[in-house]
Amino acid sequence: QFWKCINETQTKAVDSKTWKSCCNHAATDSCHSGCELAEAASELVEHCRQSDEMYLFDCVEIKQEREECCGLARKPECHNMCRRWVMSPMQVSKSLLANTCNSPVINCLSTLIPRVPLRQPHKYLHCCEHSNVPSCKDACRSSNTVLWGRERGNFIVPGRIDGTTTTQS
């Protein structure tokens, strides 16, 4: 309970630094400026119209979900590694993350990892053929076919902890 409390407190203290990286995804200058000035993610609605800034809001939601997973860490090493992954998922080795963290953190992250919002998912349809796992390839094709032409609310999972690659919405 001690480390959970410490991690939750630390997560709250550094939350703004995590989601702030999403400000670069703002479509309008006024939203970008408001995002940079906001102290909490909840303030974004004061500066940005969610219907116009879906990519930004998707990014913020993903960062916050990942932070919640990091709050399950029992050791500071895991919490720090998890936060590094939250900030830059492609910069932290999945195996290092898996070896550093306890099962609750890994299980939590496995449901999220790493959802990256796609601006034009149909452009990635050809990538489905590069998966070595038939079920992942089928899921990728299915999701891209169903979502053809939609530009927001789609996510690709480029490297899950279990090593598969797929697309989800």
From TrEMBL:
<protein>
    <recommendedName>
        <fullName>Reversion-inducing cysteine-rich with Kazal motifs N-terminal domain-containing protein</fullName>
    </recommendedName>
</protein>
<dbReference type="InterPro" id="IPR055110">
    <property type="entry name" value="RECK-like_N"/>
</dbReference>
<dbReference type="Pfam" id="PF22961">
    <property type="entry name" value="RECK-like_N"/>
</dbReference>
<dbReference type="GO" id="GO:0005886">
    <property type="term" value="C:plasma membrane"/>
</dbReference>
<dbReference type="InterPro" id="IPR039016">
    <property type="entry name" value="RECK"/>
</dbReference>
<dbReference type="GO" id="GO:0008191">
    <property type="term" value="F:metalloendopeptidase inhibitor activity"/>
</dbReference>
<dbReference type="GO" id="GO:0030198">
    <property type="term" value="P:extracellular matrix organization"/>
</dbReference>
<feature type="domain" description="Reversion-inducing cysteine-rich with Kazal motifs N-terminal">
    <location>
        <begin position="20"/>
        <end position="61"/>
    </location>
</feature>
